[in-house]
Amino acid sequence: xxxxxxxxxxxxxxxxxxxxxxxxxxxxxxxxxxxxxxxxxxxxxxxxxxxxxxxxxxxxxxxxxxxxxxxxxxxxxxxxxxxxxxxxxxxxxxxxxxxxxxxxxxxxxxxxxxxxxxxxxxxxxxxxxxxxxxxxxxxxxxxxxxxxxxxxxxxxxxxxxxxxxxxxxxxxxxxxxxxxxxxxxxxxxxxxxxxxxxxxxxxxxxxxxxxxxxxxxxxxxxxxxxxxxxx
Length: 231
Hints:
The chain is α+β, with helices and mostly antiparallel strands. It has seven helices and nine strands, in the order ααβααββαββααββββ. It has two domains: 1-37, no CATH class; 40-211, Alpha-Beta Plaits, CATH 3.30.70.20. A hairpin with a 2-residue loop joins strand 6 and strand 7.
């Protein structure tokens, strides 16, 4: 990367691990333009912690998401949901990911350097690197139909399309039973589309907080759901 900056093929602002002050210093030292690169952070497309997402069986193998997937899926009812075995946390060398009390990884955006290690570590492709300006977010990846998705996870997207109706035309669409945001139209995004989401699957991210809409079901349960074997 340093050689690329000197050659003028990259700019210091593209360095993911340096602070703003450091990239300014690098640009001045090299005598090159700083550049204008928006900060990116890792985002998780799942909110199905063990208090809202059902388990079909108990996984007792190696504590690894990748191992659980190889051994039959890890026991979670939702085939697209986070398994909570912390491969992402282990992969992060910057102490930016920690598992919460419900078995979901939480990203510290101040520490995240968009290194992509968690993206590569997740066997279910639940992580992606997103510009911080992408505040409207679908915290779900389930492709199951509405009732089935809800039976597996209380905070799943049910493809009800209320967010599509409430958003500017073309910003959100339903594809394969899942709300999908077209970030090429991100300048049109506001918190309005989250307000009528019944499960809180679509959220607004700002100032380190996750905001759900007024219609979202409030989950007060703290304990993990009991295991419900498949019939």
